[in-house]
Each structure stands twice: as C-alpha cells, then as structure tokens.
Amino acid sequence: MQALFIVGVAGGGLVAPILAAASADQRPHILAIVAVCAAGFAGLLIAPDSVPVVWALILGIGLGAGQAVAGVLYARRGRTPDHVAALSTVAQTGGYLIAATGPILASILHDATGSWTAPVTAFLVLLAVNAVASMRAGHDPKPGRQAG
Length: 148
What we know:
148 residues
C-alpha cells in the first residue's frame, strides 16, 4: 500500500506542475488537487476497509500534486530570481513547521478518541482552509509575469 502511495506522489508531482505552469490562473488546478485529496480522505473516513489501496493512491496523487504545484506558484509570483527564492524559503519553512505538527496532533486525537475519525476529519477541515487560502495564491493579477 505504501508503494502505491509513493507511485501516486510521484505521478501527481510529475503531471500537476506541467499542467499548472501552462495556465495563467492556477486556481482550477488547486481546486482539482484539493478535490483529489478530499476524495482520498473521505474514502478513508467513509469506507476505510473497502479499498484502502485506492485511497492511498488517490491521496498520493493529491499530496504529490499539491507539493509540486506550490513550486509553480513561487516561480509565477516571484518578480526576480531572488524574490522567487525568498517566497520559496518562507513558504517551505513555514509550511514544514506547520506540517510537522500534523502527525503529533493526529496521534493525540487518535489516542483521545480511539478512532481515526477525528484525525481524518481534522485533515478534511484543514484541507478546506488550505483551499480558501490557496485561491489568492493561485490567481496572478498580472498573467504572464514570471521570474527573471
């Protein structure tokens, strides 16, 4: 199952940035990525034992795509190569610090409830918050602008 997850991450990470980079507006791509991730999490929540391999593959595709499309956003929104580097540094540092709390908080929720329902529901809520925040980052008010 983990191998299929990794295959999904690689596939999503390869295809999504190519598609997103071809568009001036990355919002539709971001929404598609959010929908794929939501489908994977919802599958784990609603029918965890039915086809867990499918949920792992779907989540892998969504998470790989999301990570890779972030790189497109840095490149598209940066005005100069130095600005792209600064955007990437701030976003990745902050993102990884926030993401590092995920497994810890998920474990705490699981231990407190004895179920994966609360952690997976929390991931779905965070995914919705991410979607709203990403809509601003995904829209370039000046299409065609790229770093140096």
